[in-house]
Design a protein that fits this description.
Radius of gyration: 22 Å
Number of helices: 17
Shape: globular
Strand content: 15-25%
Helix content: 25-40%
Length: 496
């Protein structure tokens, strides 16, 4: 087999980010993907009925405009996005709703007596959103470039990360609104790491909004693959790698896989101490995913929710926290937190005329084989009476089936490792360069490495940066901007 400079195993957002970065530096790069199509968490497929295109994992992309990698790559210039006027909404029992509009002043006004508290909590972070993204989008053991912003962010997360989280508020609305986004993490609530992740997403909601890629998340994967191929890289699909011996010789191998899979594949080249540390890396809880083909839009009791594609269901703050603690204890909640997105409110390319797709998941104990369809439908129906009558077809994946679909989602954990505080600092091991594995030419380029879960490409970008420095002696990162060719292209930051 022909020798290569670099091989990337896995074609999720991080794997493709790594491959693009390496190819832009003039290296020969091959990506190996076990599925028939590329994308990992960015796939869009017809899984219910013909003409209904569903996002398989991620659907709405708060990090598309915030990620340092995507900004370098010029994603917004390569993929058309639609950004709703509202980023996320939260219905409450009795018909009231709380909505996080892109306009923080509109949000504050709608929150009435809690408007000033909301403005004080998120206004400064939204104004410094780029610095927040830089701080949260790297290894947390590094000294932040903007220490004052990092300190403010930490104090804000602390205010929402413990049993005192309701102190800033006088009514139910703002706490419930924040809890809906904090609960994305699958952690028991309240929780400091969950608060940090949720506040970062809430910050981007007011800074640039939560954009939706036209045509589905696959559009992002396709843009990355197009750039990779334009710079000489190749993608091999339908290739499940069971041993590094199956691959061509390469100076660097980058794993866009769960840390445990990377350790198994690289076992012969890794020290025993590292393998023991990876064996202690803990997985989080799972998700049950359900996609709906609908004959019409979701009939929300309160039509304000039609301004946003993302809605968090579960009622009051305390109810959602209780539900998440039940899941963390290994049980299924009778009153589950449910996250839904309806991209066809804004992107009509996803379904036949007049029809809609709805994406939804709920949290379950890891490894669960339970079909939670009825619980999800009942929770949607609670806030959108008549929803059940619109269902044309569904497609589901239990937590166990999520792992079958993507082995990096162990037990249905779409974060590829529990994103609690200790595993955000030590992800997957304590190191100033957590992407570099202690085996010749091996690098971890997945959500199991810092900065953790999310469609941001940063773990792949940082792994590629480390490989360029240590394996190829590259001292300056290549430009990733659209229309710029490599090698000999303009360079960006120096590799420290």
């Amino acid at each position: 087999m022909t020798s290569l400079d670099a091989i990337v195993i896995g074609s999720g957002p991080n794997g493709l980010a790594a491959a693009v970065t390496l190819a832009r530096a003039g290296l020969s790069v091959h990506v190996y993907e076990r599925n028939a199509t590329v994308g990992g968490g960015m796939r869009t497929e017809e899984v219910t009925l013909p003409g209904f295109r569903h996002d398989i994992c991620s659907a709405v992309h708060p990090l598309a405009f915030a990620s340092g990698f995507f900004r370098r790559f010029g994603l917004a210039d390569r993929v058309p996005f639609i950004t709703p006027s509202a980023s996320y909404g939260h219905p409450l029992p009795g018909g009231e709703v709380a909505v996080a509009y892109r306009d923080i002043e509109r949000t504050a006004e709608a929150l009435g007596p809690d408007g000033p508290a909301w403005r004080a909590l998120l206004g400064p972070l939204a104004r410094d959103a780029d610095a927040v993204a830089e701080f949260t989008g790297s290894s947390l053991i590094r000294v932040p470039r903007h220490p004052l912003v990092a300190a403010r962010f930490g104090l804000t997360a602390l205010s929402q990360g413990g049993p005192w989280w309701n102190l800033p508020f006088r009514t139910e609305k703002p706490g419930a609104l924040l809890t809906g986004v904090i609960a994305h993490t699958t952690l028991p609530l309240p929780n400091l790491a969950g608060a940090a992740a949720g506040l970062a997403l809430a910050t981007y909601a007011h800074a640039r909004g939560w954009p939706i890629p036209v045509g589905g998340s696959q559009s992002i994967a396709d843009a990355l693959v197009a750039d990779l191929r334009a710079h000489g890289g190749e993608v091999v699909t339908g290739a499940e790698i069971e041993s590094l011996g199956e691959l061509p010789d390469a100076r660097a191998v980058l794993f866009d896989t769960h840390a445990a899979i990377a350790a198994r594949l690289g076992e012969d080249r890794l020290p025993a101490d590292y393998l023991r540390r990876i064996a202690r890396f803990r997985n989080g809880n799972g998700v049950f995913k359900i996609d709906f083909a609908l004959s019409g839009p979701v009939p929300w009791r309160n039509p304000e929710l039609l301004e946003t594609a993302t809605v968090h269901l579960g009622g009051e703050r305390a109810a959602i926290a209780r539900s998440e603690r039940i899941v963390a204890a290994g049980r299924e909640s009778d009153d589950p937190y449910v996250l839904v997105t309806q991209p066809t409110l804004f992107d009509t390319t996803r379904a036949p005329s007049g029809k809609h797709v709805l994406w939804a998941y709920t949290h379950v104990p890891r490894g669960s084989t339970s079909d939670r369809s009825e619980s999800v439908i009942a929770q949607i129906e609670r806030f959108a009476p008549g929803f059940r009558d619109l269902i044309l077809a569904t497609a589901t994946k239990t937590a166990h089936q999520m792992e079958n679909y993507n082995p990096s989602y162990i037990g249905g954990d779409i974060s590829s490792g529990m994103p609690d505080l200790s595993q955000l600092v030590i992800r997957p091991t304590l190191s100033s360069d957590p992407w570099r594995m202690p085996g010749r030419g091996l690098y971890l380029a997945s959500s199991s490495a810092a900065p953790g879960p999310g469609v941001h490409g940063l773990a792949g970008y940082y792994a590629a940066r480390s490989a360029l420095h240590h394996e190829f002696g590259v001292t300056r990162m290549p430009s990733l901007a659209p229309g710029v060719s490599a090698p000999g292209a303009p360079v960006e930051e120096e590799i420290a």
